[in-house]
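Protocol step 4 of 5: obtain the predicted structure for the target chain.
Materials: sequence only (see below). No template structures provided, no constraints applied. The aim of this step is simply to have a reference model before the mutagenesis design in step 5. Sequence pasted as it appears in the construct record:
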Amino acid sequence: MDIPSGQTTRIGRNMATMVTLAVGIALLFLSTTCVANTIKTTPTAQCLQIPLARGVSGAESLSFDRRGMGPYTGVSDGRVFRWGGRAVGWTTFAYNSNHRRISRCTSHASPSEETEDVCGRPLGLQFYTKTGDLYIADAYLGLMKVGPRGGEAEPLAVQAEGVPFHFVNGIDIDQATGDVYFTDSSTKYTRRFNTQIMVHHDATGRLLKYDARAKRVKVLKPDLPYPNGVAISSDRTHVVVAHTGPCQVFRYWLKGPKVGQYELFADLPGYPDNIRRDGRGGYWVALNQEKIHLNATEPTVKHLVGVRLDANGVETEELTAAKGVTLSDVAEKDGKLWLGSVELDYVGLVH
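Step 4 output (structure tokens):
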């Protein structure tokens, strides 16, 4: 059937319009995608290095008190240090009962790996601003607390629902209620043998809650693969948990229609340790190293040690460092990044 010439012209115009519209939509999509996928890279290789006191290492977690002083950090001999600026340096803020009672905890005659099960190993730290108390997640001695003036830390819990802690790790506090959220990375392996968690694909870790009023611990989520750092969302609706072995972050809902659900929040390019709110509604996640790809044919060009995630779990920034450097914590304060590492003998500062 023949089509009248006028109708042919209209069809041609409509086709051209449709093609133009499709191209425009495609370009808009590509433009939006490119903007969304733009990841800022921040190098840390030239960061200011603040050496720890002689004989100790491993500033695994960093925290600041309600006056903004610090950082405070746990170190390899079981103590918690406070940074007082260059004029004062590092001073002992807190310690456990074994530190002064058992001589090998202060002699540094043996490697810390051989004494930490007795002398303690403080990992996660967080202040409760209402009281000024510092809560300590000690890998071996459990959940502890010390007052705003420091001193000997008080044990709060060493087990949950009849199962002893084996590897207490990350911690955060709901500043509205004082409730403490923390992780026990495994019920089989201690911190000293943490690599066995990954080798044996252990999934006995737990997400825990210490009820500040009832003074007891509740298991929120059992049977987890290497749960590590933990952080409460800025709106207090959920808790995000870093899983080291799987290179992922999960979200546990505290409120709303999904309360009690545990869901994937983000896949990560490396093995995470601590996770911290970044003051923008998102999070900083410290990375021990890049994710190992067994089928990789070429070495990685850059060494990732941290990523920033937005409130939806999308990566927006990455931190790089020299090969061999690992990070355990990234704490942002006043526009500066404080860097902690369980393996290094200094705390880093990026202006």
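Step 4 remarks: Residues 25-35 have pLDDT under 50 and may be disordered. The helical segments are 5-36, 97-101, 104-107, 112-119, 195-199.
Proceed to step 5.
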